[in-house]
Every structure is written in C-alpha cells, then in structure tokens.
Amino acid sequence: MQTMAESPDLQLKPGELRLFQDLMYREAGIRMADAKHNLVQSRLRQRLDALGLASYRDYHSLVTSPGNEAEFQRCLEALTTNETFFFRHKQHWDCVLGQIIPEWKRTAAKGATFRAWSAASSTGEEPYSLAIALDAALDGTSHAARVEATDINTQVLARAKQGIYGSYALQKLTPQCLKKYFQPLPDGDRHQVRDTIRQMVEFRSHNLLQPSRGPAFDLILLRNVLIYFDSDSKHVVLGHIAARLKPGAWLILGGAETLSGRTSEFSYVQPATYRRN
Ligand SMILES: C[S@@+](CC[C@H](N)C(=O)[O-])C[C@H]1O[C@@H](n2cnc3c(N)ncnc32)[C@H](O)[C@@H]1O
C-alpha cells in the first residue's frame, strides 16, 4: 500500500466510485448515482486522511476485509444521510396525534400496549417524538406504549441511545414540550430526553433488506429512507414491512416517498400514509 505522502493525488477514479456504489448496494440496498461522485470523494477523503491511506481502492480493500467491521460502519456512516429532527413533517404528526392514536384508544382492550416501529430511526429524534406523542395521549389511561427503533448505522444508534440534542434537532418543539420531556444540560445549549421517554424506546441495529421477527406493530414509520433504494430493494423492504403490520395497522412513509407499485398489501389513506389490508 502507498502512503499519502507518496501520493498527493487523491481523486476518486470512476472505477473506485463503482467499488463503493456496489458495496453500498450490496450491503444496504442503497443506490448512489454517479452524480454523487464529489460527495463520496469528500466524505471518504476524511477516512483516508485519518488512516493515512493513499487511494480509495485501498480504503475499499480495508473495509471489505474480515476483522474491519468497525471501519465498515464508519464508511457506511460517511456515505449515508442521517438528517432528521423532532416532529419532522407536521402533517404526519397531525395524523398520528389526531387519528391513529385516538382510534387505537377507542378500540384497544383495557391494558393493551400500542406497539410502534421507527424503521430508519437515525439519531433518535423520530422514535422519541413518537414516544412523547404516545405518552401525552395515553397519560391517565390503562394503556401502555412501546417504540422499537432501528437503523443500519450503529454510530447513529449510539448517539440516539444517549438522547442528547442541540437546537437544530429541537427546533419544532414548544417550550412546554421541551420543559416536560427534556432535561437541560449544564452546557446551556443541549437537552437530554428524560428517562420516562427513553425507557419507552428500544434501539437496535437492523438492515431493512433483511426480514425481522417479533410481535406485529400498530404503526410503522418508514420515513425518508426509501428514497435511497432502487425499485427492487424497495419491493423487498416493503415486503418485510408488510409482514410486521397487524391488519388495519398504519404505515407512514416520507413526504416524497411512495409504495412504487407494491400496493396489494396496503390501502392508501392520504399522501405517504397507508393501512395494512
Ligand atoms: C434521512 S435518515 C431518516 C431519519 C428519520 N426516519 C426521519 O425521517 O427524520 C435515513 C436513515 O436511514 C438509514 N438507512 C439507510 N439504509 C438503511 C438500511 N438498508 N437499513 C436500515 N436503515 C438504513 C440511514 O442510516 C439513516 O439513518
């Protein structure tokens, strides 16, 4: 392997871009277009610099060789987009609070548990928003709620478990909500989600291309992740999702996302919102 000092030329060559495109598709189902060349180059460059490697091909060999799973995760983190914030996309939360939870409350047996899955939970803002919404709506009832939160990226999951956020993530919260559900940290800038809410959410790593097992859900949020998949991967992912929903249960996608043809298992309710048949 050359070292960086020997090779100042760190351009990502088309063949090297192809190696990472294939890797991301194989491992995460994510299609990275050729137009992402500059983004891939600049994000991976930081890893090459940190490791003192002289080419993107060397970095690819490293992350695909046995025993380097931690660096593979860093590569994945560099190449995926984890943008999120609390109560992102108001219409979805209006539906969760105004329709989905009230209807469930009316029909659920005494003492029943509402089960939800945030299926690409990133740094945790989405599953904690759901836990806050459920806590507020089910307070004073005999009902309980559990939120499962998964992501392929273990770095974002580690941050999610801490539940510490700055002003960008908290931008949509009312002062009352911030006070009730968050503990201000001594640095004055950041807040931590209170334990009552953190205890409602369980984080674990999961690749959406793989099936999963467990009790069926009343609601799955699969938001702002399908956009990274091609139609074959979407078909696989939506099949796994359909298998985890109770009949009549809800699926919410990102604002710009659709079922792209996988319609037999779901009924359309409103843009990005469906019910399991
Ligand atoms: C833009 S974030 C979406 C966060 C949140 N759902 C929202 O809408 O605010 C997309 C997340 O999808 C995750 N992701 C990408 N491919 C995945 C896969 N194959 N399986 C599970 N998660 C994946 C990324 O790691 C990233 O955290």
Helix and strand layout, with pairings?
Elements: H1 14-28, H2 37-51, H3 56-64, H4 69-79, H5 90-107, E1 113-118, H6 125-138, E2 144-151, H7 154-162, E3 164-165, H8 175-181, E4 182-184, E5 191-193, H9 195-198, E6 201-205, E7 217-222, H10 231-242, E8 245-253, E9 266-270, E10 273-276
Parallel strand pairs: 1-2, 1-7, 2-6, 7-8
Antiparallel strand pairs: 3-5, 4-5, 8-10, 9-10
Helix pairs in contact: 2-4, 5-6
What does this structure look like?
With 277 residues, the chain is α/β, with parallel strands linked by helices. It folds into two domains: 4-79, Orthogonal Bundle (Chemotaxis Receptor Methyltransferase Cher, domain 1); 90-276, Rossmann fold (3-Layer(aba) Sandwich), CATH 3.40.50. It is 41% helix and 18% strand. It is built from ten helices and ten strands. It has helices at residues 14-28, 37-51, 56-64, 69-79, 90-107, 125-138, 154-162, 175-181, 195-198, 231-242, and strands at residues 113-118, 144-151, 164-165, 182-184, 191-193, 201-205, 217-222, 245-253, 266-270, 273-276. The strands form two sheets. It has a seven-stranded mixed beta sheet, covered by helices on one side. The protein has a three-stranded antiparallel beta sheet with strand order 3-5-4. Helix 2 (37-51) packs antiparallel against helix 4 (69-79). The N and C termini lie far apart (55 Å). Mean pLDDT is 93; it is low at 2-6. The chain binds S-adenosylmethionine (SAM). S-adenosylmethionine is lined by residues 28-30, 80-84, 88, 120, 122, 126, 151-153, 156, 207-209, 223-225, 228, 254.
